[in-house]
Amino acid sequence: MRRVRIGLGLASIFAASFAAAQSGDSSRHSGYQDMGPALQKMQDDDSANPGMLFVQAGEALWNQRTGAANKACADCHRAAAATMKGVAVRYPAIPPGTAKPVDLEGRINLCRTANQKAEPLAGESRELLALTAYLARQSRGLPIAPPDDPRLGPFREQGAELYKRRQGQLNLACATCHDANAGKKLAGVTIPQAHPDGYPVYRLEWQSLGSLKRRLRNCLVGIRAEAYAYDAPEYVLLELYLMDRAKGMKLEAPGVRP
Amino acid sequence: MRRVGLLVVVLALLAPAVRAQDELRSFMIVRDSIPESLTGTPGDATRGRAIVANRSVGLCLLCHSGPIPEERFQGNLAPSLAGAGARWSEGQLRLRIVDAARLNADTIMPPYYRLDHLHRVARLFSEKPILSAEQVEDVVAYLATLKE
Predict the structure, then answer these.
(1) Who is most buried in A47, A106, A137, B71, counting CB within 10 A?
(2) Which of residues 59-88 of A touch B (CB under 8 A)?
(3) ipTM (interface predicted TM)
(4) Topology of B2-145 in CATH?
(5) Contacts of residue A175, Cβ cutoff 8 Å, sequence gap at least 6
């Protein structure tokens, strides 16, 4: 069943990205708009969006006691629909008492270690993706709203510099593709504008949900640049810049992508 | 003391790039072209076509389209390769492939036979150019056949 759906999705991707390229729409828009109607429908329909399975798993984890403290997220935060609404749209942010920005995954792991007294969850693990998707889901439809924290400024600027710097054997910058050539076709694929509004996304090519970090690593590998280490600060810097660039766009997580 | 330290650092930074560029064959640029074959012999157009068509070897069709109908997915970030052999001489095509930035400093076309001024190249690909001298010659030979 799932196979069939994915096959259908792939067949229509190319038709739709062709249409998008033809329309030459350069106004700010989500990668959602670059996809075909079948994939858009898959994202919109909770019963077809495979990311929703992760959201459900995240809800279970939210309510599950763990760690030396034997506490569940829900023991402190209660109903996520109320307490976590509007949280995902403001990350990365600087947690109280610290000096460096963390992404939403990093914030979840802070609570894992400090409040649940449990081991941090590994990056891209099913559990961390599930909790992230569950929290992001609580902000679905809300505008991306980076915090008004002046300490973030210099970090965001570093992110912008990384974004504009050429790198890798192919000597390309993120901006080369996602600013100067967005909407054009890289081989068969329409280059999206690189907005983080759908993350974590279920990507058909991955056959899994994946984080923004995983997406950025794919782009780095594509230009034959050394991907930053999984725990490197560069991803948070880039995400800070991307979230600012997408300010006001609606969060659509969990998205679906080809 | 500080000055010596700085000098050492500068040398350390320069050394790998210089060494890497040394591993390429030397060539001479005359105006907008490299008139002589990098290998001293002409390339093979059939092999060149296969390199251009291959999305993980030549990578050309990521950005370009061209008269290679069996490759359905071609790019539109760059002009079609059709007619390139009529518009440009072999020497001009050679310089374009070797280091397109010599012709247009802002070009997005990757430098296929250059090792310096690159940043954070993945370990798997570092210290070697995207194409070997032989491959560059094969591609030039193929492009030269594209007369219309």
Answers:
(1) A137
(2) none
(3) 0.86
(4) Cytochrome Bc1 Complex; Chain D, domain 2 (1.10.760)
(5) A163, A164
